[in-house]
Specification:
This protein is mainly beta and about 270 residues long. It contains 1 helix and 18 strands. The chain has an 8-stranded antiparallel barrel with strand order 10-11-12-13-14-16-17-18. A 5-stranded mixed β-sheet has the order 2-9-8-4-6, with no helix packed on it. A 4-stranded antiparallel β-sheet has the order 1-3-7-5, with no helix packed on it.
C-alpha cells in the first residue's frame, strides 16, 4: 500500500501535465481577416476642425508574412460622403509578419458632422481569405458641442412669442453673465413695457442644455396688465445657439399667464 501511495503522486502529476499540453494547443489552420467589431461610434467636437479615429481589423492568427489589408467605403450603405464628410488616411495597411491586429486611420471632418449621426460603412479585403464574420464595419459619428457662453451672445431673431411682445423676425440683444453659465435676454426692443433699458430675462444653463429663466425685475406694462414677473424653463442648443423657452409664466396683480413660448435663433 505504501508503494502504491508514493507512485500515485507522480502519476497524477503526469495526468495534469498531459491535460495542460492539450489546453495550450495553438491554432494552426487557415488564417482569416475581419474587422475587430461590427460597429463603433465617435463625435467631432465643435471648433476642432476634425478628429482622427482608428478602425481596427484582425486576423485569426499571426500573419505568416507581411500582408497588405485594404479598406473601402460601401457608399450604398453610408450616409456620409468620402472626401466631403470624412477622409481615409490609409486605405492600405501593411500587417507585419507575426502580428494579427492592424488599423485604418479615418479623419472625420467637422464641416460634415451634424447633431444627428451620420454613418460610414466600410468593407475589408486582403490576400488573406475573408472570415465569415465582421466583413463590414459601420462607424457612426455626430457633432459634439460643449457649452460655450460665446455662442449665446449677440443679436437674435424672434421665431415665436405667444405672449406677443414681439413679432417673428424682431431682433433682440443677448449679453453674457453675470455667472459663467448665464446670459441676459435684454428688453431694449420691447415696445410694450416702460422699463426696457433696465429689465431682462436672466437665463441659467445646465450642462445638459436645460435652462431656467427669471426676470431681474418685474416688466412694467400699461394697465390693466401692470407689473409682471417672469419665470420659465426650456432648452438651448449648444451647436446652433438656439434658445427655446417652452414654458414661460407671467405673474402679477392682474393674474397669471402660463405656458407661453419664446423661441429665438441667432441672427
Amino acid at each position: 500500500m505504501k508503494i502504491l501511495k508514493y507512485l500515485s503522486i507522480p502519476l497524477f502529476a503526469l495526468m495534469i501535465s498531459a491535460c495542460s499540453e492539450r489546453d495550450d494547443a495553438v491554432y494552426d489552420g487557415d488564417n482569416f481577416v475581419s474587422f475587430g467589431a461590427e460597429s463603433s461610434e465617435a463625435t467631432v467636437v465643435k471648433g476642432s476642425t476634425s478628429r482622427e479615429v482608428a478602425v481596427v481589423y484582425t486576423t485569426l492568427s499571426e500573419a505568416k508574412q507581411n500582408t497588405e489589408v485594404k479598406i473601402a467605403v460601401d457608399a450604398a450603405n453610408s450616409t456620409a460622403v468620402e472626401g466631403v464628410d470624412f477622409k481615409i488616411l490609409n486605405k492600405t495597411d501593411n500587417l507585419p509578419a507575426g502580428q494579427k491586429v492592424g488599423s485604418f486611420k479615418i479623419q472625420l471632418l467637422e464641416s460634415g458632422a451634424l447633431e444627428t449621426q451620420k454613418k460610414i460603412t466600410f468593407k475589408i479585403s486582403s490576400s488573406v481569405p475573408n472570415a465569415t464574420f465582421n466583413q463590414t464595419h459601420t462607424l457612426s459619428y455626430s457633432l459634439e458641442c460643449p457649452f460655450n457662453m460665446s455662442g449665446f451672445t449677440g443679436t437674435y431673431k424672434v421665431v415665436t412669442d405667444t405672449w406677443e411682445d414681439y413679432s417673428p423676425g424682431d431682433l433682440i440683444t443677448i449679453q453674457p453673465g453675470p455667472a459663467a453659465n448665464q446670459f441676459k435676454i435684454l428688453s431694449t426692443n420691447n415696445p410694450y413695457i416702460s422699463n426696457p433699458t433696465t429689465s431682462y430675462m436672466l437665463v441659467t444653463v445646465q450642462n445638459n442644455g436645460n435652462i431656467t429663466v427669471a426676470s431681474n425685475q418685474p416688466f412694467l406694462y400699461d394697465a390693466p396688465t401692470g407689473s409682471m414677473s417672469l419665470t420659465g424653463t426650456g432648452t438651448v442648443n449648444f451647436c446652433t445657439g438656439g434658445i427655446n423657452i417652452s414654458a414661460l409664466t407671467f405673474s402679477g396683480p392682474a393674474g397669471t399667464a402660463s405656458g407661453q413660448k419664446f423661441v429665438l435663433v441667432k441672427n
